[in-house]
Structure formats: C-alpha cells, structure tokens
Amino acid sequence: MKLIWTILLVASLVALLFLWIKHKLSWSWFWKLSLQVVVAAVAIYIINVWQVIPQITIPINPVTIVTLVVLGIPGAMLLAGLQLFIV
C-alpha cells in the first residue's frame, strides 16, 4: 500500500512540475500563500498568549491554519466559538 501512495505522490509531483514549466507560472502565488500561513499562525499564537477570551486556547495545527487562511478574521471567530461552545 505504501508503494502505491509513493507512486501516486511522485506522479502528482511530476505532473505539477510539468504544468508549472509549461505555463511558466510565477512564484508570486507561493509567496502570497506563505505569507498568509505565517500571518494565520501568528494570529493564533497571539490569541493563545494574550488570552483574549480566558477560556479559549486554539491549537496551532493544519486545520486551524487553513481555516484562518481561507476565512480570515471570521475564521478566527468561528474557531473561538467552536472552542467555547462545543469543546
């Protein structure tokens, strides 16, 4: 099973590399995405350190980072609400 996943990963990487070279995409999207991920991680860190709401600590993991990157400030409020009322 690991062999199948490895082959699938390598094939996907080759396909992406081929498309990147064929269309001559710039790295600007990569830098913008990287900046958004860093800002999201820092925002979660600040929320946890400053204890904006004393009962809430939002873990820094890929799901919370993606939520903040995609949704922004409303995503932070969503995570805080989920943490406060569901967890």
Automatic annotation (TrEMBL):
Keywords: Membrane, Transmembrane, Transmembrane helix. The keyword Transmembrane helix applies. The chain crosses the membrane at residues 29-53, 65-86. It comes from the Bacteria. The keyword Transmembrane helix applies. Pfam families: BofA (PF07441). InterPro entries: BofA. This is Pro-sigmaK processing inhibitor BofA family protein. It comes from Paenibacillus yanchengensis.
